[in-house]
Amino acid sequence: MTAASAPTRARSTSSVPRTARLSFLRVLRSELVKLATLRSTWWSLGITVALSVGIALLIAAASRDFGGDFPAVNAITAPMQFTMLVAGIFGAMAITGEYSTGMIRSTLTAEPRRGGVVLAKAIAVALFLLITVLVSTLIAVVSTAPLLGDAGIDWNDTDASTVPLANSLLAMVAFGLIGLGWGFIIRNGAGAIAATVGLLFVAPIILSLFTIGGEAWLWLVDLAQYLPMGAASTLTSGGAIENAVPVITLLAWPVGTLLVGWMILRTRDA
Predict the structure, then answer these.
(1) Is residue 94 part of a domain?
(2) Rounded distance, CA 167 to CA 250, Å?
(3) What is the pLDDT of residues 141-180, one digit of tens each?
(4) What is the C-alpha separation between 59 and 79, in angstroms, rounded?
(5) What is the 3-state secondary structure of the chain?
(6) According to the model, what pLDDT value does residue 153 have?
(7) What are phi and psi of 234, to 5 degrees?
């Protein structure tokens, strides 16, 4: 009886269609679940909110001594100079953790299309950062309003209110995706974090040192505006944006690093 039923089970198993493929939405859902179940995600996002609101409150309280030319929106956007590092590190850890644990093998086995993996991971990181920065911005706007008083944000002037705030959301997402791109490129947590911090924080400081070198070295100082933080500072400083260079610069860095990471992922085994 057992011997006779074995071929039947074998035939039924072999007749199962093998045309099913993992849809992109399911890949995206799995990436969202991965990030949501990591403690490092909530620590990173919690620190981002705490720094954003805390520094905004300090700047708003001190703004009374800054003079009348201080744009009130800068109290909300200025903390980005610190939270950008947390966003970049969060993006780097989102992928390097998979390389350190070997989970990347399971990911690529389930979804062999490397481009789909990179895109899903990028969307997941962007969504987490977008929601976090939106929440922290709303809290900062409400909590700093009593401190700013009559010198508060003029919501009727979009160039000095909603535009810089929207650009700060874009910048923070870009910083996170730059870290993610470095993670795909280097595939090591310490290396990816070092590269991210170097690009976002160290490089602008180094270029600014050449201001003491005279006019012959000003071209190096001017290069800072083509770094991610230089472009973000221009977009979030308040006032009308005269050209598209900062926007293109801010978008080019995450797109470039992710494209390089995708090409490396295609040519190397996990």
Answers:
(1) yes
(2) 10
(3) 999 999 888 778 888 888 888 999 999 999 999 999 999 9
(4) 9
(5) CHHHHHHHHHHHHHCCCCCCCCCHHHHHHHHHHHHHCCHHHHHHHHHHHHHHHHHHHHHHHHHHHCCCCCCCCHHHHCCHHHHHHHHHHHHHHHHHHHHHHCHHHHHHHHCCCHHHHHHHHHHHHHHHHHHHHHHHHHHHHHHHHHHHHHHCCCCCCHHHCHHHHHHHHHHHHHHHHHHHHHHHHHCCHHHHHHHHHHHHHHHHHHHHHHHHHCHHHHHHHHHHHHCHHHHHHHHHCCCCCCCCHHHHHHHHHHHHHHHHHHHHHHHCCC
(6) 85
(7) -65, -40
Q: Which residues of the chain have pLDDT under 70?
A: 1-21, 67-68, 239-240, 269-270
Q: Give per-residue pLDDT as tens, 205-221.
A: 998 888 887 777 888 88
Domain annotation covers residue 109: yes
Q: What angle do CA 125, 74, 231 make, to 5 degrees?
A: 55
Structural domain of 122 = 23-267
Decide if 86 is inside a domain: yes
Q: Is the pTM higher than 0.90?
A: no
pLDDT attached to residue 195? 97
**30 exposure class (CB count in 10 Å sphere: 0-12, 13-18, 19+):** middle
What span, in angstroms and rounded, lies between the C-alpha atoms of 8 and 48?
59
Instruction: Specify the number of domains making up the chain.
Output: 1
Q: Examine residue 6 and state whether it is found in any structural domain, yes or no.
A: no
The number of residues in the chain equals 270
Q: Residue 247 in contact with residue 241, Cβ under 8 Å? A: yes
